[in-house]
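User: Sequence in, structure out. Go.
Assistant: Echoing your sequence, followed by the structure tokens.
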Amino acid sequence: MINRILRGFLFCLLLATNLSAQEVRQEEIPLQNDSIRIPGTLTYPTGEGALPLVVYIHGSGNIDRNGNQPGTFVQAGYIKALRKALNREGIAFFSYDKRTAVEANLPYLDQVSLTDYVSDARRALEYFEKDPRFSGVHLIGHSQGSLVGMLATSGQVRSFTSLAGPALPIDSILVRQLSAQNPELGREARPILAKLKQGEPLELSGASPVLQLLLAPASRPLWSSWMAYDPREELARVDAPVLLLYGGMDTQVPVETGLGFREVRPDAQWVVLPQMNHVLKQVTSPETQQQAYTDPGVPLAEGLVETLSTFIVQSN
């Protein structure tokens, strides 16, 4: 009995030593898509042979490679935290600055569309497709990035994770969100959004200030290009294993927003982490919800890393 306990202790000690000695290599990759700069960070543990690689596609807003939004209160660092956690599981990780987070891109951001974000994601995927250091590329698309990832994915992607991805078209989501604020606002928005979706000119001089701000001329190319896609149809076309992952504390993309995906991909894994919020953090109360957006020290949600790493390794 004593010898068995001793052997177990020595094994755990050896394992801990190997993990602590494991190096994580970091490379800054100055990706460009024509005139657009989308620099990113690649990290991977060394000495383990070819590894699965995650390419992470961010959600809406001017999000950088770490999960922060320059010039805003959102400084959660959730992508950086996920990168480190998956590296510890033997998974390489690449994330890049969204084109709207890079100051040098400002002269080129006058008419940004969803297809621009798709083009940037494809550029990142192409960069790693034939890299011998990695045994397979796995795509994680978060929120808006879920649809972007579906549109960017190719037959060479080993798996696709839709992380807090809405299953409804964006115009339907906007009507729901506006109606939740004020039912009259939702009713006003519906025909205006329908016109935008059909490519008709908009006249908003008499519209409510909320709609005038939301549908300002500079933002219309993004909304109209986004409305052109039904995420359910795009997910049905993804030729790879799919994980649908949501947070029970996500107030931006509630769990029910993703239910439509289950109908078109009954083969997909469906996981809800009860205390995960939109920025992937552990939230136990309304008071900690705000802190999760501003404090990078708030830990990632329980079960997130285990769920992702298991799915990625099984799909590799």
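User: And one key feature?
Assistant: The chain has one domain: 22-169+229-315.
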